Sequence to fold (336 residues):
Amino acid sequence: MSAARKSEKLLEVRDLVKHFPITKGIIFSKQVGAVQAVDGISFDVNRGETLGLVGESGCGKSTTGRMILRLIEATSGSIDFEGRNILELGKDQMRELRKDIQIIFQDPYASLNPRMTVGDIIGEPLYIHKLAKGKEREKRVRELLEVVGLSAFHARRFPHEFSGGQRQRIGVARALAVNPKLIVCDEPVSALDVSIQAQVVNLLQDLQEEFDLTYLFIAHDLSVVKHISDRVAVMYLGKIMELAHKKALYDSPQHPYTQALLSAIPVADPTVKKERVILKGDVPSPINPPTGCRFHTRCPKAMDICKVKEPKWLEVAENHFAACHLLTGMNGEKSA
Fold:
């Protein structure tokens, strides 16, 4: 893919918010609060690239991915895909758009219907979107199975007859069936053994090259994200803390939270001494997140201003963004 084409924005997310209401009462339900799962995040995904979205469990990664497909409706914000705001589309328009945006789920066991054969599972999107039928659909299913490293005769089997890695390959084949432009990979390897993880990640990279795919790769394993991603966004408690090209982020992390996450990556060489950043306390509740910087309750470098004022989103180096008062010098530098 040309550099110009790869710099073209496929997906633009702006000020995306998802608050899950908390209600009280059986008959006359009254909202008494909200879980602030995602609270005003913005990012772009360029055509042909892989953007890694990382963070601890409960930070809002998967919620973000599901809002992009409108499996969960956003509270506010905008999601532009090829210039169209997904959140403004009607039911029929959204069904048509789903040919271009697909998802690979985290759990390869729960995401496949146990009552359907593999051929029916992969062929169902072709039927729904009226892309192929009869012998043509069967042929397409066989081709997809072979593309993901399985055999054509597997189409007659049921999901319980496969291992976890094979089931995830079936999930990949299902996502590929409608020739999508963007695939949201929602922790696609976290439920697999380490050796199988490498196989699936390599498969995704090969398919990206072959079919000109774009990935939003959601994960908590920073080693996997480094291997597959072009750029990486780091989330904490519903906010994006840092966003940069993977080399810049892994070589020179600017945000204290990113530094702590990277320090926890194990090193295979036992002779290498690595300083570990230990975060104190637990992640605060998204029902009542801290004021100011959301990370200040656990940050080893927190200052008084962090408790009361939310840091600006700054470009601290070329195409390297972060939100931290340590980077502004508290003198109100211009935000990006």
Q: What stands out?
A: Residues 330-336 have pLDDT under 50 and may be disordered.
